[in-house]
Amino acid sequence: xxxxxxxxxxxxxxxxxxxxxxxxxxxxxxxxxxxxxxxxxxxxxxxxxxxxxxxxxxxxxxxxxxxxxxxxxxxxxxxxxxxxxxxxxxxxxxxxxxxxxxxxxxxxxxxxxxxxxxxxxxxxxxxxxxxxxxxxxxxxxxxxxxxxxxxxxxxxxxxxxxxxxxxxxxxxxxxxxxxxxxxxxxxxxxxxxxxxxxxxxxxxxxxxxxxxxxxxxxxxxxxxxxxxxxxxxxxxxxxxxxxxxxxxxxxxxxxxxxxxxxxxxxxxxxxxxxxxxxxxxxxxxxxxxxxxxxxxxxxxxxxxxxxxxxxxxxxxxxxx
Length: 320
What we know:
Layout: H1 3-26, H2 29-46, H3 53-102, H4 106-133, H5 146-155, E1 157-158, H6 161-167, E2 175-177, E3 182-184, H7 185-193, E4 198-206, E5 209-216, E6 222-226, E7 231-234, H8 251-274, H9 279-293, H10 295-299, H11 305-315
Parallel strand pairs: 1-4, 3-7
Antiparallel strand pairs: 2-3, 4-5, 5-6, 6-7
């Protein structure tokens, strides 16, 4: 074997190795078939010294190099698209980490809402005594507003302002009032009958104002507490629509879950994008394979120019 033949066969193996790597990367059957068929053509020249080795070089120049460049171009485009997806995943992870550092846990909320309900029940019992004795004593437990201040941003449900106004509107004739609090007369009557036992049900927010909603433990009725006015009124939950009362997850926890779900979607998209090939390009590659797999192709292997046009059209396509 002369030096020129050895060099051309070595160069042929190099380009075939590139094609092999790309077939593994794309995991596309037709590309692997092209790789195998290209090996067959290489072996044809390697095992038949009487064939003009320059035709093998011409075959690679016209065909193999072009398909390799096409696949490399698609691979580079896919990697750019993946980079955009991974950048978004990274930003989402940073936001998730920041949320984890600042969010109050559901465990904290559930524990503190029990304490808050106890404070409200004690305050209402004391308010009953104050109203009965007609004194000006402040009935509210210490730090009664700390609960909403701590948890409203994360755990309270948002409602429109007109609904907020509707829920907190009352007839002055229907309430008891002293310098510290206002409470619906019928509500006070029900509280007395149920021994001032209630539990925190939910929190509502609108325009930076908050409402705490409580459920009577021995009744199906609910009442609200408006901290900014120390107001207690019955609360008709049927007026509040579109809220999943069973969902106690905080807003930040919901955002964290949404970001985690989004990252799962982005990761799946990245996995698909990695080896994606546009359908029209796949069709061109299949046509290319059909050509080099044709028995007549080997018989007319010197006739490259016309048959190679299909690959030229691939490289000039706007689909990549």
